Amino acid sequence: MSSLSRVLGALFVSLLLVVPSYAAEQLKVGLAAIDVTPPIGVPLGGYGTPSRRLSPMDWKGKYKYAFMLKPSTGKRDAIRAKAMVLIKGSEKLLFLSIDLVAIDKGFKKYVYKKLKKLGFKKENIIVSATHTHHGPGTLSKKFLWKVIGMDLYQRKITKRLKQQTVEVAKMAISKAEPATLHSLKFDAEGIQENRRHVEGHFDTEMNFLMAKDQNGDWMGGMTNLAIHPTSMRSKDLRYSADIPGEIERSFRQKLEGVNKTKRAVTMMFTNGAEGDVRPVHGGERWMTQLAGTLGQQFITKLDKAVQIKPVWKAVTKKVFLGLPYLNLPTCAADMGAKGFGKFIMNTIRKFPLATALPMWTDLTLVQLDGISMMTWPGEPTTSIGLDLKRAAYQAGAKNAWVLGLTNHHLAYFVTAQEFYEPGYEGCASFYGPLGGVKIINKYRKMINKK
Questions:
Q1: Average pLDDT for residues 103-107, to the nearest whole number?
Q2: How far is C-alpha 304 from the geometric centre of its chain's CA atoms?
Q3: Is 363 domain-assigned?
Q4: Which of 146, 377, 407, 408 could serve as a FRET partner for 317 with CA atoms 20 to 30 Å apart?
Q5: Cβ atoms 180, 27 nearer than 8 A
Q6: With contact defined as beta carbons under 8 Å apart, do 367 and 155 qualify?
Q7: 135 part of a folded domain
Q8: Which residue range(s) make up the domain with 364?
Q9: For 109-124, what is each residue's pLDDT tens digit?
């Protein structure tokens, strides 16, 4: 055999070895969404206001699912579970967004347990609630959340919802196909306002992670914006995804309108630092109009989307938050307590919640080609969220996402000043004036670790 033949033969064998390896490393993206609306009659979770409460409570067993809260009466639009999965060789990254008021760590644990046999690592599964106050209650075993606005735990309702979430994840995995990833960021205009009446104090930054198929058509993706989904009135007892659902629908329609084929699009909403941020207008009509306005802003910015590399790393660390307690003086001021009640609350000052909430929680940082996604176990206010983003940008991030209400829910996180000011947010912040600072400091170490 000539030397040229030997060289060509060796080159051919090398190609046979290299090509399958290269093909295995090609990015695949899968997206899916399903309707997970529970039976009518399950009380809605999120509001503990009189308009939601049964009086008296259902001691006689009149209702199948409700005891403290009024049963739901209908369905305005679907409660959905949505999934976006990235697969590159043996590496997998899964994002889930569900139209619920909150996610607890048990929910995430269940999803991981069912998916780890498919090769998923715990830190590579991100489960977020959109924070609609018109999704199902009855999902928590914690006494605190039952009383505040979830009603008594219903095992069958909770288990079915968890199973459906795993189902949508598997559906996204089965639909995964070769794709490219694209990032977009712009400032939303005329959508939000600060509910603490601090003029202009909210995060307008809207982030997107989207995928295109091999034909160049949009498959869909996920978006992130800080906004409290409280467009629907508390006295309306119908299921609804509220403004996150309308935003998803608006973006989906815009992308399908620019696709060359009739390819269907899946969009999923994740919330940001929405603790003190609400829609600029409330009401069912305004929610649709605001989402349409946002959709128009989105489509005019779409040509600014940039392709990014499918290279990611996820890491989870524990952070010690301390002993949880109820901030009684702030609660007294928020409730307008007077006389002896006010005196007692200001004297006791702290009501321990050690058995109701944990002292530790998990934080997950996902870094994806210049994008830093940081999970937050509850509802940070604007100042807290902006401080966290600032830390990410100072460390070199191109885009920074605060994934609020993700993987766990430990209520509100506020600044030291907000903690002592009259207001619902300070009253519902259970880890003291430095709870949010502890999380930010932990992320600083995670982001800057080489």
A1: 95
A2: 25
A3: yes
A4: 146
A5: yes
A6: no
A7: no
A8: 311-450
A9: 999 999 999 999 999 9
